[in-house]
Amino acid sequence: MAPTKAPDSSRRSDRSRRAILDAALALVTEVGYRRTTIEGIAARAGVGKQTIYRWWPSKAAVLMDAFLDLAGRSAEGVAAESESAGGPDEGEQAPGIPDTGDLVADLKLVLRATVDELNDPVLEAPTRALTAEGIVDAKLGAAFVHKLLDPQLALYVTRLRAAQEAGDVRADVDPRIALELLIGPLMHRWLLRTLPLTHAYADEIVEYAVGGLAPRP
User: Fold this and answer.
1) What pLDDT digit, counting tens, does each position of 1-51 carry?
2) How many alpha carbons lie under 13 Å from residue 179 in its C-beta half-sphere?
3) What is d(CA 96, CA 76) in angstroms, rounded to the nearest whole number?
4) CA distances from 116 to 60, 76, 183 (A)
5) Rounded CA gap, 149 and 64, in Å?
6) CA-to-CA distance for 197 and 155, rounded, in angstroms?
7) What digits encode the pLDDT tens for the residues 104-162?
8) Rounded CA gap, 181 and 215, in Å?
9) Phi first, then psi: what are they for 89, rounded to 5°?
10) Distances from the Cα of 61 to the Cαs of 67, 87, 178, in angstroms?
11) Average pLDDT over every residue of 79-90
């Protein structure tokens, strides 16, 4: 008689964590942040509340990890697109904004990918829910900035500083302010739904911003 194989607890835990993260995103998309509860997440995931509390201290922590996981998976897709579009050679580690030597082309590639993310129904609803709640919940908003936005903004700073060293951006430009010329208009249009968020709009933002950042004759 063959011996009975012991259950793989790590695999079961991975499945449970994935189910919880997926359930959290589904609920916040369907009913919003305020109406999403630990009880609801547990029921949707098919686990007990104590399973969730074993890994996360609060609903906000669950949703933040769920969103970071979703953003990470989306970033992997963007990186794959960048590589196929002529990004870094195989073996180079270049997460974030590519540096092909053409600042305008690199920024357009990344802003177009950002437009696609913001327009993606899978990402849009949870992003809006957490962004809106972060405005009224200072602690959640600070976590959102620290864990998600700051690492992404740092990639813009790195790329803009490289452009300064290459002479494509004025030396007196503050990269942290300059990146807001790129990100700010996208988020304004997306948050307020003033006009459609398109690739053409992203391209125009880059043209306007880089034109203002370029060295003066």
Assistant:
1) 445 554 455 566 889 999 999 999 999 888 888 899 999 999 999 999 999
2) 17
3) 10
4) 26, 14, 14
5) 12
6) 22
7) 999 999 999 999 989 988 788 888 888 888 888 888 889 889 988 899 999 999 999 99
8) 16
9) -65, 160
10) 10, 34, 31
11) 52
Show the DSSP H helices in the chain as ranges: 9-31, 38-45, 49-55, 59-84, 103-119, 121-136, 138-144, 150-165, 175-192, 199-213
What's phi and psi for 54, nearest 5 deg? -70, -30
Q: Quickly count: other Cβ atoms within 10 Å of residue 56's Cβ.
A: 20
Closest Cα to residue 126, out of 148, 111, 110? Answer: 148
Is the pLDDT at 76 greater than 80? The verdict is no
Which pair of tokens denotes residue 30?
Answer: 């369907």
Q: How far is CA 192 from CA 22, 128, 145, 189, in A?
A: 27, 11, 20, 6
- The C-alpha atoms of residue 36 and residue 44 are separated, in whole angstroms, by 11
Tell me which DSSP letter residue 27 carries.
Answer: H
CA of 36: how far to CAs of 62, 143, 206, in Å? Answer: 11, 18, 38
Sign for the pseudo-dihedral over CA of 21, 50, 41, 15: positive
**CB contact set of 126 (below 8 Å; sequence gap of 6+):** 25, 28, 29, 63, 66, 67, 70
Q: What is the DSSP letter of 99?
A: -
Q: Tell me the longest C-alpha to C-alpha distance in the chain.
A: 85
